[in-house]
Design goal:
Blueprint lengths: L2 H4 L13 H9 L2 H10 L5 H12 L5 H19 L4 H20 L3
Helix pairs in contact: 5-6
Length: 108
Amino acid sequence: MNKEELKRFDEIRPYEPEEMQQAFEDLLNDRQFSLVLKGFVPWLPKGVRNGLLRLAFKGVKTPLDFQKRFMKRIVQYITKVSHLPFYRLSRIIKHCNILIDNLLTFRK
């Protein structure tokens, strides 16, 4: 594919390492993402939630860093608390990965 053909996929391509920090800030400023976080910890003010996430995001430079830092823990948690058979659990994990990838690749 030439560059013109590849531009069709700009909105869904993975982030480059130099884009990660801005993508994270955009995510923190996203209204829907904020509502999801509020659903998990409604007693925590938005500024504190965002501050904690910024602290947790320190050192994340690449999409792989993000997968290791956040997704690994999410998958481990789901595995620990789930009483589902493995084949069903693997489907849930797949959907979790798709959700997170979509959050990180969402472009305005």
